[in-house]
Amino acid sequence: MNMKAKYFIVLGLALSVTVYLTSLTIPETISTVATKAYPLKKFKKGWNFFIVSDWGWNGQSYQQQVADQMGIQADSTGAKFIVSCGDNFQINGVASTQDPLWMKNFENVYTNNTLQVDWFPVFGNHDYKGNTQAQLDYSKISRRWRFEEHYYSFVKKINDSISARFIFLDTPPLLSEYYKPEYPDAAKQDSAKQIKWLNETLANSKEQWKIVFGHHPIYSASKKHGNTKEMIQRVKPLLEKYNAQFYFSGHDHDMQHLQEHGKNVDYMVTGTGGEARPCSKNEQSLFSASVPGYSIVSFHADSIRVVFMGANGLPQYTYERKK
Question: Longest Cα pair distance anywhere in the chain, in angstroms?
């Protein structure tokens, strides 16, 4: 065999090994929008909290990698609290407060000291396949699991002149598709009462920022689930009527930022706390990416920044909205 032939054989083997090793790493993004580096010092000047959703995978499907990166980021920037937009326990929720999944999915995964802050969850559809009351009752056991009602709200003072109202919805009972035997607790909830509560909470809110969380998106470009018709009919008009600025959700396992033309609500999907699925875009899309990760929301004196962070430690997208 001549030297030229040997050279191409070695080159081919080297390229094969490189491709294989690359396939083992976490992809940075599959978005049509370029990533943007974001200086960490910007976070340090803000009032920060994290959002992670669809994360309950027993530490698998990138859940542990996302959790580790959350801990690393929280070490340098801090997190006042953490929000979960549901599907806290794949695939069938939990059976009780003593279910081993509490350790496998939560306690033994998010172990960094800086993640031992208050967690404020909502229910996802997979949580409704189990015992939803057990997730509420775990608040009596855990010092950081703050989930005492199916839907709830609180106010945080950002600085001397700015306050924010945080509103947490229980979306599965708002959707008729979950009134089935495999979701035993959904039909027990009074969805009309929740919508009335949301209307009153938003109407009485005097805070400068109104941030709403739920599991199901209102708008989504994903081909897996996409727009949620009943959320558009029941929740969207209230967000617009009372000038809520953000609606955060999960359910679709991707990262998305959407806006409806001529409207003022920003719709954020951050459903990649464990598994990422292929993403897509539509006429409302400003950003779409398929990458495991979470979100950092950073309040400043006159603005909010939302940053989609990848499990690879890289910011994927940033958005800033003025007050």
Answer: 83
DSSP string, 63-104: HHHHHHHHHHHHHHH--SEEEE-S--STTT--SSTT-THHII
Contact 82, 120 (CB under 8 A): yes
- Say how far apart CA 184 and CA 109 lie, in whole Å: 28
96: left (phi over 0), alpha (psi -120 to 50) or beta: beta
CATH number at residue 299: 3.60.21.10
**What pTM value is reported for the model?**
0.87
Residue-wise pLDDT for 233-284, tens only, equals: 999 999 999 999 999 999 999 999 999 999 999 999 999 999 999 999 999 9
Contacts of 248 (CB under 8 A, 6+ apart): 51, 83, 85, 211, 212, 213, 214, 268, 269, 270, 295
Note the pLDDT tens digit of each residue in 277-298: 999 999 999 999 999 999 999 9
Q: What's the domain count of the chain?
A: 1
Q: Are 52 and 306 in contact (CB under 8 A)?
A: no
Domain that holds residue 275: 3-322
SS3 2: coil
